[in-house]
Specification:
Helices cover 49% and strands 16% of the residues. By secondary structure, it is α/β, with parallel strands linked by helices. Strand 7 and strand 8 form a beta hairpin.
């Protein structure tokens, strides 16, 4: 049963956009909050706003119905904090205030209308929450507007909100490509700092742009279905968006891989991306699963929590939820350090992450521990890793549970032979450490790995000699063989720092 304390730590955010209304419930005030409930209703509130100046009447009724449902669910979930944010459509509509009052009357929910620059800032914070050193341009395309933010090492330098939402362009100009191009060109040309994004990534946020990523995954047989942090180089994404911007609804429906509700506006969203990456001369496009909601959540966190590493915090949550002795990770990391001491910081971070989650497969059937652990990391929606890093961490976890882990199409496509070997070494080091200690904190400091030119020595302080055994010897030998070394175990009076 969920405790009242745990329920009180949960936070709900409702995003009332031009195209959709979405409820996300986050499981607590953590650096890597898990979305435990996520539901979207495509209402189209802003569908006719340029012609009428008001919210779409059908969309209003759909939104009110959705908000009633959300309010009822939140009461049942005992969520104490609920933040409701409205963006382009509600802030632009002459009846936006009336809509907010109706929602308050019928559901008890209070809507906060945020302006375009604030929407841009929050969406950028969403990207920064996953990549604290983000440098480039963040673009968040919604139904009614496009927010752009210039990022420099995680700092917001410039921001703007433009009326280039995909649904707005589709409603105003339909399939008149020349008119859409002129509108996009006019507004992008008004942003004087776009050239500062040259040779830097475009961080792409928003449903229309995620649809482009989904289509790429479906059409290219890309081995990972998780969109978050998928990166495509400019030549590839430029060609794709150029082609998509010229497609009819019928053509897109035949291609498949795109939600029917996104088909009409997808060419317009693709054209905006095509022109934007050309204007800024982007190096590549990084598709982000984060945006306004994650930015809002990031901002309300205490500063001490915001400063943590989101990947390591997520791994720590894995360990606390599913491992037997979750305190073991950092100790295991230090124990393996003599083997991998000279590696660069990004690999050290990944090794620490792997050590923290080194026991996540313990409760699976032994025959499936490697595969299940691999898939759990590979398919987790919001790990703050590039796709190659994600596959590497997954491959490491698969290798932790078996000496001959093969991986799958993801590892074949995204990892080279040297990287796979490093993953196997990490995995086998973690396997040896767990075999030696039983996963219990306090044993590994009484032992020591000493790499030599021709052999790998495991030293055991005499007080820990009894923990040696056949399994330890076997796994030490396999690890040493992978390093192209012999293995040996020593019992010593004192451990000497290497």
């Amino acid at each position: 049963m969920l405790t009242d304390q745990r329920a009180s730590n949960r936070i709900a955010i409702i995003d009332v956009g031009s195209n959709s209304v979405r409820l996300v419930v986050f499981d607590g005030m953590t650096r890597a909050p898990a979305p435990i409930f996520n539901e979207k209703v495509m209402c189209g509130l802003g569908r006719d706003i340029d012609a009428t100046g008001q919210l779409n009447p059908e969309g209003v009724e759909m939104a009110v119905t959705a908000m009633r449902r959300f309010a009822g669910l939140l009461r049942a979930m005992k969520i104490v904090r609920v933040d409701v944010l409205a963006t382009a459509a509600v802030r632009a509509a002459s009846d936006g205030d009336a809509f907010c009052k109706r929602i308050k009357t019928e559901t008890g929910l209070t809507i906060k209308i945020i302006d375009g620059l604030e929407e841009a800032r929050l969406s950028a914070l969403g990207v920064i929450s996953g990549d604290p050193d983000a440098t480039g341009i963040m673009g968040d395309i919604g139904g009614g507007s496009l927010e752009l933010v210039l990022l420099d090492q995680g700092a917001i330098r410039e921001r703007v909100s433009l009326p280039l939402g995909a649904m707005r362009l589709q409603t105003l100009f339909g399939n008149n490509r020349s008119a859409v191009e002129a509108e996009v060109e006019k507004h992008l040309s008004s942003v004087p700092w776009l050239d500062q994004g040259k040779d830097k990534p475009l961080f792409a946020v928003g449903g229309s742009w995620r649809s482009i990523a989904k289509l790429y995954i479906a059409q290219e047989n890309y081995p990972i279905s998780v969109i978050h942090n998928m990166t495509l180089p400019r030549p590839e994404i430029a060609e794709l968006t150029h082609i998509l911007s010229q497609q009819s609804r019928i053509s897109l429906e035949k291609i498949g891989g795109v939600s029917k509700r996104r088909v009409d506006s997808l060419p317009h969203g693709a054209l905006v991306m095509s022109r934007l990456i050309s204007k800024m001369q982007a190096r590549d496009v990084v598709f982000s699963g984060h945006g306004l909601r994650e930015g809002w959540m990031f901002e309300v966190l205490p500063a001490a929590i915001r400063d943590r590493d989101p990947l390591l915090d997520a791994c720590q949550s894995f360990a606390e939820d599913s491992e037997r002795f979750h305190q073991h990770g950092e100790e295991l990391y230090r124990w393996t350090d003599p083997i991998f001491r000279d590696q660069p910081e990004n690999l050290r971070r990944l090794r620490l992450a792997a050590c923290i989650i080194g026991d996540i497969g313990w409760n699976e059937h032994p025959d499936y521990r490697a595969e299940q652990s691999y898939n759990r990391i590979l398919r987790h929606p919001y790990l703050e890793l590039s796709h190659p890093e994600r596959v590497f961490l997954a491959y490491t976890m698969g290798s932790r549970y078996t000496g001959n882990f093969k991986g799958d199409a993801s590892s074949d496509r995204l990892l080279d032979d040297e990287t796979r070997l490093t993953g196997r070494l990490f995995g086998q080091a973690i396997r040896l450490g767990h075999s030696l200690s039983g996963g219990v904190e306090g044993i590994l400091p009484g032992t020591q790995l000493v790499p030599g030119d021709r052999e790998l020595v495991l030293r055991l302080h005499k007080d820990y000699a009894a923990i040696n055994g056949e399994v330890v010897e076997q796994r030490l030998a396999k690890f040493a063989k992978l390093m192209d070394r012999d293995s040996r175990i020593e019992i010593v009076e004192n451990l000497v720092s290497a």
